[in-house]
UniProtKB/TrEMBL annotation:
This is Anion transporter. Residues 15-289 form the ArsA/GET3 Anion-transporting ATPase-like domain. One of its GO terms (molecular function) is ATP binding. PANTHER family: ANION TRANSPORTER ATPASE-RELATED, ARSENICAL PUMP-DRIVING ATPASE ARSENITE-TRANSLOCATING ATPASE.
Length: 373
């Protein structure tokens, strides 16, 4: 097994973007924050972008809240040789910024005021994942930070983050969108064509838009947005290139559980297929044994103490140790199965913390464990 050298990764000035990805509930947000804290303390000017709706990152960094603009972390006891900023994706604000960047003032006002736009900018399938990539592209283009750490969205599938630009672009450039251009070119015939050609399907796709103005609002939006499609695609292309560049490193995060490791395996294979640079796997919340005492011996000793009616606390500790040994053995089997399938993937393991991480000290400790070779 190759060990993932996290300090070497964050110390390398050529590393400009670290993307933490994996299935939901495996600790991506905490891992991303811990990497960013360690990078700042080792001299990098880092920013961490989270898409976590629970706002745990702000609390752990000592901030009351995060928003769509990076905020520098300045709290007592934190004096890094570098600098750390943090932000949380505001999906609607990011979409608005993209519209403003690709349209003139008048056209932008038309788009931003359109009820149809207000719906797709907050609820269209794939919008959150796409806007996470859009914000990453914005931060990289601004050049204010020498390291960007990204916590990917808590999607059902970790692959959604990579698929988002193509999915959203296809949806906004598909047959129904082209039909909605019809009213401007063909008068009433175009509107009737939309209704007869699949209004029900399209209304279901955008889901929450209601009312008699649906088709008029949708058509007006598409006509106003049409001139921006080129810029939309170009931004997606540039961000995809950034993700494939040598300055980007993907860190797959998984818990030592079958579903999480299966998802990690799929993601590793997808990254390879897409020629995207994988740094390695972080197996989070492991349960290594704390003493070299076989499970059978621990159970035998516990039973002996219980039979004698002495040292009940010691007997309980021995049984807990036996359970821990069994859990550790199970986790090692699962991780070994992943390693057998992907022998070249570097790996780091982070033992489970005794409590949820909610402050900088906890993030520092995780960073130390990530770097513990």
């Amino acid at each position: 097994m190759t060990t993932l050298d996290m300090d070497r990764l964050v110390d390398d000035p050529a590393t400009r973007v670290i993307v933490c990805c994996g299935s939901g509930g495996v600790g991506k947000t905490t891992t991303a924050a811990a990497i960013a804290v360690r990078a700042a303390e080792r001299g990098r000017k880092a920013v961490v972008l989270t898409i976590d709706p629970a706002r745990r990152l702000a609390q752990s960094l000592g901030l009351r809240e995060l928003d769509n603009t990076p905020r520098q972390v300045e709290v007592d006891g934190f004096a890094p040789t570098g600098e750390l900023s943090a932000m949380m994706l505001d999906m609607r604000r990011t979409f608005d910024d993209m519209v403003l960047a690709h349209a003139g003032p008048e056209r932008a006002r038309e788009v931003l005021a359109n009820p149809f736009y207000k719906t797709i900018s907050s609820s269209f399938s794939g919008t959150q994942e796409y806007m996470a990539m859009e914000k990453l592209g914005q931060l990289a283009a601004e050049g204010a930070y020498d390291l960007i750490v990204v916590d990917t969205p808590p999607s059902r599938s970790a692959l959604d983050f990579l698929d988002a630009p193509q999915r959203l672009s296809t949806a906004l450039d598909g047959r129904m969108i082209k039909l909605l251009m019809g009213p401007a070119r063909a008068g009433g015939r175009g509107l009737r064509k939309v209704v007869s050609a699949g209004f029900g399907l399209f209304a279901k796709a955008v889901s929450t838009v209601v009312g008699g103005q649906l088709l008029a609002d949708a058509s007006a939006f598409v006509q106003a947005f049409d001139s921006m499609f080129g810029g939309f695609r170009e931004r997606a292309r540039r961000t995809a290139e950034l993700l494939r560049s040598s300055g980007t490193a993907f860190v797959v995060v998984a818990a030592p559980e079958p579903d999480a490791l299966r998802e990690a395996s799929y993601f590793v294979e997808r990254l390879a297929a897409e020629s995207m640079p994988l740094a390695g796997l972080v197996v989070n919340r492991t349960h290594p044994v704390l003493a070299e005492l076989p499970s059978a011996q621990a159970l035998a000793a516990a039973e002996s103490l219980e039979s004698a009616g002495t040292a009940p606390l010691a007997a309980a500790v021995l049984r807990l140790h036996a359970d821990r040994v069994a859990l550790d053995r199970r986790e090692r089997r699962l991780v070994a199965r992943f390693t057998k399938a992907h022998p070249s993937v570097a790996r780091a393991e982070v033992p489970a913390m005794p409590a949820d991480v909610h402050d900088l000290d906890g993030l520092r400790l995780i960073g130390e464990r990530l770097a513990d070779l």
